[in-house]
Amino acid sequence: MEGTSKLEFPESFLSFLKANGLDPSIYAGGNSIPRYVRLKPGFENAVQQIESDINCKLDEVKWLPGFYSIPPHVHIARSKAYQQGMMYGIDAASGAAVSALGISPGDHVLDLCAAPGAKLCMMLDLLGDKGSATGVDVARHRLAACRTLLQKYGLGQRSRLFLADGTIFSVPPTTNLTYEPCLDCHEDTFKQWTSRRPYKERKQEAKARKNSVLPHNGQPEIIFYGQSSGVIGLKKKELYRPLDKNDYAFCGYDKVLVDAECTHDGSIKHIQKFEQWGWTTLERRVLDAERTDISLASLQLNLLRNGFRLLKEAGTLVYSTCSLTHAQNEDVVDQFLAENSSAELQEIETAKDWPCRSGRTPKTLRFDPATSATSGLFVAKIRKLPPNEAEKNVL
Ligand SMILES: C[S@@+](CC[C@H](N)C(=O)[O-])C[C@H]1O[C@@H](n2cnc3c(N)ncnc32)[C@H](O)[C@@H]1O
């Protein structure tokens, strides 16, 4: 196909793009988009060292602090800099979505579809040594990979990971983050996290895995928590304390990312994998009508609804997907805004210099390979209005 160099898309994918009003030229240059890395704070002065380690230049991404690009063929996995956790791979468009949240040290942030966790790493980097980050995902193996990532980069201290359905997840942030060793703790109290689970718990987990269901009857299962995450010393009923619907306005999260499950059609790297896996697999996994129409869009809307419910008043939510179809992006956001007078779509102020386009709904943004030299990503930023401002929205 013209413009996408060697990548030939099958007819079914081209029809999928056409049916969704997408011009295939947005993938132009997709084979040559760079890889992006983010340097961990504290390693800003190690650029030369990293360059000689990976044997190529790190090109600073001027519009996104802390990000560098390298040519697509350069592998970093075996480099010392990567193995020692000085940098991690994260696409610049993903970095932009996190940056749109405007995270400040001390915030309590929620990542409702967190695995495998590159965005969660960046959130924790931005928090520094204040606040907390809670990651939720419905896939156990992906969340386990996320835990490994946090541990590798030494970012676990202030984080909690829950295996849970993000459409109904309800655990509020824990605001008392002081680590108390809890010497005479009751049996039911969370102690320091260890990878060794008690026999009873392992048995229960194995059974749930076998039946492909979430354990504890769908209740969130905490699979990791750090020393300063506020979990140690809590009783189970305190961690899982039910809040009243309106309490989240005060006790909810300051920032929420809903990086929703999607068809991944904007991710050229994902689509390219199907060249080897076979285009029929792409048809089944990506283009399947039932998945792309109602069921996926309603999952996305429900994730967005729940993320917003858990948000504090005046807090910020970012909705993103790596699909570029309107059905999974603007349509979801428009429907959500129509049913929520307390939700206000916001201009992303930092985006003035970003190489992206506006979405169909004003103030939303779209990254694509041709415009941005990044993977495809849709981003919308939403603020939860206090009741007096929300009333004005209805009038
Ligand atoms: C686009 S990926 C998230 C990528 C991640 N934010 C990152 O930066 O690495 C979407 C994730 O949503 C998860 N997911 C799907 N349905 C979910 C649900 N109902 N609740 C929570 N997570 C869900 C998938 O398991 C998948 O890991």
From TrEMBL:
Domain SAM-dependent MTase RsmB/NOP-type positions: 1-385
Residues holding S-adenosyl-L-methionine: D137, D165, D259
Superkingdom: Eukaryota
InterPro entries: MeTrfase_RsmB-F_NOP2_cat (IPR049560), MeTrfase_RsmB-F_NOP2_dom (IPR001678), RCMT (IPR023267), RCMT_subfamily_9 (IPR023269), SAM-dependent_MTases_sf (IPR029063)
Short name of one Pfam family: Methyltr_RsmB-F
Residue numbers annotated as active site: C322
GO biological process, one term: RNA methylation
Keywords of the record: Methyltransferase, RNA-binding, S-adenosyl-L-methionine, Transferase
Molecular functions per Gene Ontology: RNA binding; RNA methyltransferase activity
Family note: Belongs to the class I-like SAM-binding methyltransferase superfamily. RsmB/NOP family.
The protein, known as: SAM-dependent MTase RsmB/NOP-type domain-containing protein
